[in-house]
Every structure is written in C-alpha cells, then in structure tokens.
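Weekly modeling sync, notes
Attendees: S.R. (lead), two postdocs, one rotation student

Agenda item 3: backlog of single-chain predictions. S.R. asked that every request posted to the team notebook include the full sequence so nobody has to chase files. The rotation student volunteered to paste the first one in as an example of the format we agreed on. Action items at the bottom.

Example entry:
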Amino acid sequence: MLRIYRYAMTLAAALISVAALAQNLDPTVEVSRAYEGSLVEVHKPAMQMAVPDSVQHFRLDFDYSVFDSPYKGSYEFNPYITSMRPASAAFKPNVFYLRAGAGYRLYPVADLVWSPSFKNGFMMDVYASHRSYVGDYRAVMPGTEGWNGYDLWSNGGVSGRYDWKKGTLDFDVAYLGVHSKDLNGPRALDAVDASFGIASKPAQTFMYDVNLGYRFADDKAADHIRENFVSMDADLGPSFKGSHKILFELGLDLSHYAAEPDWGMARMNVTPHYVYAKGRWKLDAGVKVDFLVASVAAEASKAAKRQQVVYPDVHVEFAAVKDAMNLYAKAVGGNKLNTYSQLVERNHFADRSFLAGNVLDATVERLRAVFGMKGRIGTRFSYDLSGGYAGYANMLMDSVAEVEGKLAPMVAYSGCNKAFVELGWLLDTERFKFDGSAKYAHFWGFESLPGLIAPAALSGDVSAEFNIRKRIFFGVDCAFATSRKMIAPVAENMPYSISGYADLGCSVEFVTSRKLSFWAHGGNLLNMTIQRSPLYAEGGINFTVGLCLNL
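Predicted structure, as returned to the notebook:
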C-alpha cells in the first residue's frame, strides 16, 4: 500500500501543477462545490429534482448507493418547515442561523451556520449539526425483549471559497462523530475530513476542475480500526467553438486500514469523453477505464475479480418542449469503494463484526441504462420520471447471520439485476407546497447467500405544507417502504423478514418575527415498528419542540 500512496501523491502533485499552469489560459465552465446551507429537509428525496439546472448543464458524474436503501434512524427527523431553512445560497455573508429542539422520546436536534463577512473575494461558513436518539429500542423477533441504547451523530467544520477573475479555490475541514450503544455495548467512530479544490471559470479554450480529499477515521470498537482514505479527481480539457469539448476525467480512491491484519484497496479511473451542446441537443460520450487493486490481505475481494475494467459513460439529452420537457438517456457503469466509515455513517450500529472476514469490498456496477423525461408544467410544478435497468457484479447489501443461536446483523456482497421506475415531483405555490419521490424496483439474480436481505420493492417520501400568511405553517410528511425478505434461510427455525412501514409525521411552526420562530413535530404517528436497518427499531410515537433563530 505504501507504493500506492506514493503514486497517489505524485498524481495529486501533477494535477495541481496542471491547474496552476492553466491559470494563464481562459477556462470553460464554472464549478462550485460550496457548502450547502439547507439544513432542514424532511425525508430528502432519493432523486435530485433540480430541473432548471439540469436543463442547462450536464452532470458528468453519477452516484452509487452503498446500500440500495440507506439507513435512516430517528435522529434524522426534520420538521418540514421551509421558513426554517437557511438561505439556499451558501456563503451568504453576515448570517447566523440556529435551530434546536428536543422532546419525547429523547430526540435532540441542532443546526448552526455562521457566515462572517469578508472582502476581496473570500467567503467562509462555520457549521455544525447534531442528531440523536436516546431511549428504548423495540424487539423485532418473537421471544426477544427490547433494550435501551442510544444513537448519536455530530458533524461540524469550516468551509470557505476564494474567487478571482479566472478561477475559484475552495476548502472544507470537518469533524464527524458517530456514537451508539446496543446490547453489545458502546461503540464510537471519530473522523476528520479535509478537502481542497481549484476550478476554472467560464471561457472558450480550456477548463480544469481538480479536487483532493482526505479522511482519517478511528473506530474504538472491540476490534480497533484506523482508516485512511484519499480521494483525487480532475476534469481537464479544451473546448472548440463553444459547443465542442474534449475532456479527460482522472480519478484515484485509496483506502487503507490499520487493523489485524492490515488491508487496503485502490480504485483508479481514466475517462476520455467528448461533449457537444448546441440548440436542443446535449451529448456527453465517454468510455471509462476503471479498475480495482486489492492489497495482499484482501485477496478474497470479489470486486477485484469481477470488475470488467471498461465501462460506458454516455449521456444524451434533448429539449423536446422548451422550458417544459427534456428527454434524456444514459448508459453508465463503474466501481465504487465502500469504506468502513461510510458503512458506519449509513448504519450507526455497524462495526467490524458486520464484515464477513477482514475485507470491506467494492461495488461493481456493470451497466446502468436509464431513459426519462423531466421538466416543468407552468411555473409551479416540476417533475422527473425515469426508468431503466441496472446490472451489478458486486453489490453491498444488508444481511443477517446466526451467532450463538441468535441473529446478528451483517453485510454481504452479491451479483444481481434490477429493473426500476422512479418519479420525483415538486408543486410550489405561495401558500402550498407538495413534493416527494417514489421508486419501484424489481430485483432478480441474487446469489444464494444465507441471510441476504433483498431491498424494498417500493419506497419513497411524500411531504405537504400549507401556510397562513407565511406566519403559521402546517406540514405533513410520510416516508414509506414495503417489506424486505431473506433470499435464503440463514438457519432452520430462524425465519426473518423486515415488515413494511409508513412513518407518518406532522409539524407546525409559528413565526413570531423574521428572526425567531417556534416549531413542533410529531413522528411515527402510526406507532409502527420501523426497521430501516435489520434488527434495529427505534421507539414509537415521538414529539419534538424547538426554536429557530435566523439573524
């Protein structure tokens, strides 16, 4: 792994040097990775609904989910109140925003943003967030009893950006803490993140966007693990006559774990692609060379053996009805490292025992083909409807295993196929807001691994809000998912499945002034046993009250 680290540092230096040399050239596109200040969102949709932006720009990257249905504990509750959100524009100067609340059951929540004012093109945010649950957890298996524990999540840091005539430079330094306690005792993960980016501004001849990131994570569970994760990516290339571009995307992800035994994995990719945008048409055609390298301790890696190295990276978009409907299609694929700290972020009760062996593997998506349409109807309603197919050679999934006659949570990897349909929408009027997302997926081709749990077939979020003269706000929200079943029995006389649920909530806010408001929220009003992660179910009905300062 030391050799890989040296290669990583060499590549980082080369990318930064290229960006520095490019300062004398005219850049092509503006890239902003500023801190997002929208801290209050209820059941954030799985699909991005930024229709106006997507109509104007290509997203040259795509996202994978480590879990098809990421873990969301009760700590993630947020009342659906638009006036409680900070300004959508990051780095808004002279802003102080504080939101805090607690209630029964004990769900303390807090968000803080402070944006001091600077001159000469420099902007900065100081931010912090906290979500937690302390109390009872319900029994989910017949003949078992509930237990008392906690789930604490904290994040805070400083982000900034400096703008000059031909480019931007941004940074972010942050702390992440995940602390939990269940029947196996307490566990804690502490992580420090640092990122740095430099990018060009719009011009005619050349563009660059270089980003470096580093995470150090320390897990204090029984099997002590220290994680080092390095990420580097860059987009470089010229443009011709405004509508044509040739870009080269370079990337390196490197994870290393100090444990017994040490292990590590690296992902490297190069993607040359041609971009054309003129009139109603937009085309981004590329071929991604993406490969994984595992350390000696990770020779059992399925991903390294199953990767196909060459993946498609093609996006096409056509404006069928100006400002109203865009038709789009894409064919993509690639690899993604699944780091240990990401596993803990998605399931706060995860630890080394969740891993089958010593290796945390990687996701291999051979192909994702998507067809869809998005746009607006009038000025108030936006939508995004898509469907397609995804084939995985290696996909990280929830699992359970038998340990001393009892079920214990695990993760496992399996190849599978998925056909899916997704819908996202937003209706936004002066007094009423209605938004949400829904996804239906049919899976097949799983490997016959005992204890493997299939993702939910149907899941989604729905939120509605009504306001009276922007003084009193009423909101209703619901996150839902159908049942999840085991692919193959983990053991005789140990059947297990995760029941479907509907997490119904309601909220109210009273705005006393532009600077102060009071809010209340009720969650899980149907008093259902909700397992967003196998074998863990928070308490039932809950109520939270709090205040919001926006100075």
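Discussion: group reviewed the output briefly. The chain has one domain: 2-38+66-550.
Action items: rotation student to repeat for the remaining queue; S.R. to check formatting next week.
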